[in-house]
Amino acid sequence: MAEETKKTMDSEEVKTSEEEKTTREETADETEKQAEHAEGAETEEDAASEKKGFFGKKNKKDKKDTQIEDLTDKLRRQMAEFDNFRKRTEKEKSGMFEMGAKSVVEKLLPVVDNFERGLASVPEDQKEDPFVAGVDKVYKQLLTVFDELGVKPIEAVGQPFDPNFHNAVMHVEDDEQGENVVVEEFQKGYMYHDSVVRHSMVKVAN
Question: To bridge 189 with a disulfide, which of 81, 83, 88, 154 should be the other Cys (CB 3.0-4.6 Å)?
Answer without folding.
Answer: 154
